[in-house]
Amino acid sequence: MKEKLDVLVVDDEPEILQLLELLLSRRGFSVKTALNGLEAISTLNAYDVKVLLTDLKMPALSGMKLIELVRMDFPEVKVLVFTGFGSLETETKALKMGVSRYFLKPLPVEELLSELNDACKT
Length: 122
Fold this sequence. Notes:
Rossmann fold; 5-stranded parallel β-sheet
């Protein structure tokens, strides 16, 4: 990895946030977390985040709405999605919105790390 990549992880489950923050920081990523889409927007405005990893089903601002806002205001941010409530319809919609990868929970850690390491190269 050339440099520490800033990753923002968004999920309304604190345990998942803590687990992903620990896992990714141990792998050399600089990790920010947010419990919902509104917190995520604030974090994106405050930090130079390169990758957004977001859940879809969240209160306050859904993952799909967050993706829509990120695509408009932060087009350079790479967006990855993970969800426990996946469907072909939501996957297709997310990919059409510019999402790079769509993961189902439980998150395939090695695939996620591979995707993040690829983001470091671009």
